[in-house]
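Researcher: For the annotation table, I need structure tokens for Pseudouridine synthase. Please keep the output clean. Sequence:
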Amino acid sequence: MRPMTQADQESQKQKVEAADTSMRVAKRIAKAGVCSRRDAEKLIEEGRVAVNGKVLATPACVVTDSDKVTVDGKALPAAEIPRMWRYHKPKGLVTSHKDEQGRKTVFEALPPELPRVISVGRLDIATEGLLLLTTDGAIARHLELPSTGWLRRYRVRAYGEVADEQLEEIRAGATIDGIAYGPVEASIERVQGGNVWLSIGIREGKNREVKRLLEHLGLKVNRLIRTSFGPFQLGELAPGAVLEVGPKALTSHLGVKLAQELGVRAPTKQGGKRPTPGKHGKLHSQKSPQARRRAKR
């Protein structure tokens, strides 16, 4: 066997790099921020997408960064760097881009200056609290998986009475109507009239899981607020407010390896501090009060 030459090494390197960037064409279109992956597949079926000048007839096409993808004859914009926001979802909004019943959706209520985003999982129309939004479908799908082991914590107000000993039944996991629910964290915060406030932590996120678990104990949930999703906290975020998670924090929460795989870039040392939202969503700098007084002189 002949020794590998420099040209062979370079060729092998290019093949590895191409493999690292390969993806379905619909995903490539979505990552460029043109539309969702599902809508991209529709564009392909309509004959509006071409790769290297050849019109595609099926979404079953894998491309790399070296391939030229066009939609309606126009080249794709550069792929967007994945971004994420914390959003305090108010009660009464549907977590969907379109609602057949004409109800107002989360995405219709977002500030118009936000780019196209998708949600990490969903919250029921009557559920309030923390909803994560991202521009990247891969991040959303990864964080939705129960295998991440991330705890989703809720504050729950429910009508009825329950003793701490009764909570043991759901702490260890329970099977309700043939559906097996894993162990949960559950504690009583306080009793308020005919209601009881509880703290519930789940890791699976099955449909209506919290409500079904508490109904199993004879309680009727009348308020449900998600306060955290893994390391992401609702904190003091006001209802309807949205605040971006900085790349440094996002990298820390995802882990450096996963963040790199998903294309999250750590902030550079240049450019100073990031602006932070003011009272009415406007941006203000992080200057000290003394510096602001000097600037006014």
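Researcher: And a one-line annotation?
Model: The radius of gyration is 24 Å.
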